[in-house]
Amino acid sequence: MTLPLPALAPVEETLWVTLTARAFDSRLPDPILGDTMADELVRKTGYTNDKLRWTRLSCVDVAQRAKKLDEVARRFIARHPNAIGIDLGAGLDTRAFRIDTPPTVDWYDVDFPDVVAARRRLIPDRPHVHAIGADLTDPTWLESLPTDRPAVIVADGLMAFLAEADMISLLQRLTDHLHSGEIAFNVYNKFTVRAAKLTPSVGWLVPLFKSPGFDRLDPVRWNPKLTLIEEIMLAREPEVAKYPLALRLWTRLGAPSASLSRLGTVVARYRF
Ligand SMILES: C[S@@+](CC[C@H](N)C(=O)[O-])C[C@H]1O[C@@H](n2cnc3c(N)ncnc32)[C@H](O)[C@@H]1O
User: N or C: lower Cβ tally within 10 Å for the chain?
Assistant: First the structure.
């Protein structure tokens, strides 16, 4: 029996894009991420959408960038066992389960209240994992979070949905409230935004984008507390070995060039 689908606003509905892509990847014989909980959630809700017809080719980007953000969080937590983790615009992602957060870590999944209500209904509780229902542009949601613990903040597929001024003030509030830590997200540069318009599986999302696209160095220009410490170009990462043949060959051809690699997805990691 399937559970009723949550009623969501269009921007909230975008959570299905990433969730169904990760679910598709998990069903492959040799997945990149292997997020079986995503698959369980899709099956549990019976969610289908004709616009989301994933293939081995089209799902790699979502699966790989989630894996990279998991690695950032996992490495940070290994170095700071008393850390807090924050997933901005978490949707129905179950990152805390994937990275298996230890009991010393408090993890916060933040998304709009309706999404958080759906999370509470669909995702099992896990000790020390908290859900915060808030609009990230609201300046008050951070107030309940501890200020004195190192923080790892990730945002997967979020930044395109924030206007530039909102992204700047969100970064400012995070680095003002939290003592120290890292923040990592996939960069939506101007090319990514233009390319999304032409990609059949995601082109319909573009009208929901509020960001005109930004450069990986923009956050450093906007916020002097941020230092760019890593630029993870997916085209240069080991998971390329699992890409379908044509994409693998094409990616490997361009990988020696940073400019070409930046035309693909980049996960930027900053310290504050
Ligand atoms: C593409 S989905 C990605 C969801 C999740 N990170 C994942 O990888 O499955 C974008 C998410 O950002 C959330 N979002 C967008 N703007 C937001 C805002 N202003 N406040 C809170 N959440 C927001 C949406 O509700 C949605 O869940």
Answer: N
